[in-house]
Design a protein that fits this description.
two-stranded antiparallel sheet; rod-shaped; 6 helices; mainly alpha
Length: 204
């Protein structure tokens, strides 16, 4: 009798700290207020700020690295687009001159002063092709930057939702002592059985 009771009390003493520890963790997490709306607002005002608010500091190099890469491609394609656009405009203006005009040579020379020598022998149709290509690529990367900006906001909001999500190991852990056979009269049940009963419940 006393042996069964002592073992049962010992098991109960072991079980209480586990349950208490789970309650402390749950209370500590419940006391944390983390707003997904605030995280989304922060990333809207300044990309990466929502990730910093969520303490996902490892995402900051990805956010700013992505914007830096898109910014580079936008600037590079825009520079080439303007270069070929200006050359095309010069060639187009020269093509509109009338060859029978007495001032034809002077007007042509004045226009070609703004033309880089590298474009002198390039046909106007090729200039138009490269002009349209670089403009298309520039616009594409602008669209990608806008999408990346939106993903930055969505990521901050979703990450904030999971910031307070309880994924602790003792979320649904119930540890209880049990004693069996302590009061049995039958010789077959004369030996006491004591131990711990562990049950885990998965919450939706």
């Amino acid at each position: 009798m006393k042996t069964c009771a002592a073992i049962a009390l010992l098991a109960l003493a072991v079980a209480r700290p586990v349950a208490a520890g789970g309650q402390v963790v749950a209370q500590a997490r419940d006391s944390v207020t983390h707003s997904p709306k605030r995280a989304a607002l922060y990333s809207t005002l300044l990309p990466g700020l929502g990730q910093a608010y969520n303490r996902s500091y490892w995402k900051l190099p990805l956010v700013y690295g992505g914007f830096a890469a898109f910014g580079y491609f936008i600037q590079s394609n825009d520079f080439r687009y303007r270069l070929y656009r200006d050359a095309y405009n010069v060639k187009y203006s020269v093509a509109q001159l009338k060859t029978d005009d007495p001032d034809y040579d002077a007007k042509k020379a004045a226009l070609e002063e703004n033309l880089y020598s590298m474009f002198t022998s390039v046909p106007i149709d090729r200039l138009q092709y490269y002009k349209n290509t670089y403009r298309r690529d520039r616009d594409f990367f602008i669209i990608m930057t806008i999408l990346f900006y939106g993903i930055n906001i969505i990521d901050a909001a979703v990450d904030a939702h999971f910031f307070t999500y309880d994924v602790s190991d003792d979320l649904s852990l119930k540890l209880q002592p049990y004693a069996e056979g302590c009061y049995a009269v039958s010789p077959l049940r004369s030996n006491p059985h004591v131990g711990l009963n562990l049950s885990i419940t998965f919450k939706k």
